[in-house]
Amino acid sequence: MQTNLPVEEYWKQCSNALTSSAAEVLGPLQRRPKKPWFDDECGKAIREKNLARQKWLSARKTRSADVYYNTFKDARKRAVYLCRLRKRHFEDSEMRKVELLSGRNDTRKFYQQVKRQKEGYTPPATFCNDANGNLSVNDNDVL
Questions:
Q1: Is 98:114 a contact under the CB 8 Å cutoff?
Q2: Which one of 40, 78, 87, 128 counts the least CB within 10 Å of its CB?
Q3: Is 31 helix (H, G, I), strand (E, B) or coil?
Q4: How far apart are CA 12 and CA 99, in angstroms?
Q5: What is the pTM of this model?
Q6: Residue 33, SS3?
Q7: Which residue, 32, 56, 47, is CA-closest to 82?
Q8: Distance between CA 78 and CA 66 in Å, rounded?
Q9: pLDDT band for position 82 (50/70/90)?
């Protein structure tokens, strides 16, 4: 690399060299999906529901609004049913994994899985400082 370049160019070259060597050595970053049970069929059902909702909203003041509303209701019902079904199957398979780990005497993995199941989803905490600089935890004060 040349050192007589402007700072921005020099930084760009350093950054590119660092990211390319990290990609070669470490490989691409594999992210775990937030909802592993969410598949293409769930996505398709939700897209259809959203499309039916848009049609219903655009035709609300016309005579055919009831027809569009009924198709939206059916699409919403199908999407909710499908997503709940997928999530239920996923949670059942996770519980089967816990049972399998308990029978295999794999204690560490067993307790990790139990902890993951027991904790579930915890929403992020919202904190904010008020005008005096004190920490405000109350949701009404934060918003």
A1: yes
A2: 40
A3: coil
A4: 51
A5: 0.60
A6: coil
A7: 47
A8: 18
A9: very high
